[in-house]
Amino acid sequence: MSAKGLKPAIARPSAREALVAADVVAQQAGLPPAALAPAATRPATVTSSSGAEELVQVNIRVRRGLGDQLADRAQAEGTTQKVLICRALAAAGFAVHPDDLRAAPPPRRRGSS
């Protein structure tokens, strides 16, 4: 036990050891062997539903008044602030992917509300 009263850290298996263990479990379950794809063939990016373009995150800071207007309009239209901004960009002549012009379904939440 360490001086601070914490539990000692246990040794974690290496990636290779974890892969061997996953392979044993897969074989016992009658599944194909566990394997990692070579780095060159693994997908390196998250793609949209059409599988064509990489998704990136864009963050902007605006004054509170504009942020409030965006939030109020999005709530009134039953959509998201992202959709409102993408619609404005499309109206200004930017090429906007159709998936960016519609809101994603709301996340599933646990509970009764």
Can you offer a commentary on this structure?
The protein is mostly helical and 113 residues long. Helix content is 35%, strand content 0%.
**What level of helicity do the residues show?**
25-40%
Mean pLDDT: 81
Report the total helices. Answer: 3
Q: Residue ranges: pLDDT <50 for 5 or more in a row?
A: none
Distance between the termini: 45 Å
SS strand fraction: under 5%
Shape: elongated
Q: What is the subunit arrangement here? A: single chain
Biggest sheet, open or closed, and with what strands and sense? none
Could you state the order of secondary-structure elements as H and E?
HHH
Q: What structural class do you assign from the helix and strand content?
A: mainly alpha
Radius of gyration, taken over Cα atoms and rounded to an integer in Å = 24 Å
Strands, total number: 0
What tags apply to this protein structure?
single chain; 113 residues; mainly alpha; elongated
Give the topology.
Layout: H1 15-28, H2 64-77, H3 81-91
Task: Write a brief structural summary.
The chain has 3 helices and no strands. With 113 residues, the protein is mostly helical.
